[in-house]
Design goal:
By secondary structure, the chain is mostly beta strands. The chain has a single domain, classed as Cupredoxins -  blue copper proteins (Immunoglobulin-like). Helices cover 13% and strands 39% of the residues. The strands form two sheets. Strands 2-1-4-6 form a four-stranded mixed sheet, with no helix packed on it. Strands 3-8-7-5 form a four-stranded mixed sheet, with no helix packed on it. The chain is globular and about 35 Å long.
Length: 106
Amino acid sequence: MLLICVLVPVAVAAVLPATASAATKRVKVGDEYFSPKRITIQSGDTVRWNWVGSLRHNVTVTRGPRMFHSKTQRSGHYSRAIGRRGTYRYICTIHPLSMRGRITVE
């Protein structure tokens, strides 16, 4: 009986499929640009915007399945896990003409 208790968990663990872990895509927030401007991710992945310039910027989704926005800042980062599929268009509200980006979630 003890042998069965030891072998069953091992057998169950061997049969269960491995789950894919979510990825993180990085976007630079520079002085008046996002780089890259367009990214494609899988549902559940995270996007991390890293501030690399010296001016104040933010990330604000203007169109998409869900709206979200970061605080306006000069340095640091902002991360967001995105689960809903679709296309997200975002801007920096301080520099809306030059700072535009797009995320496609598959």
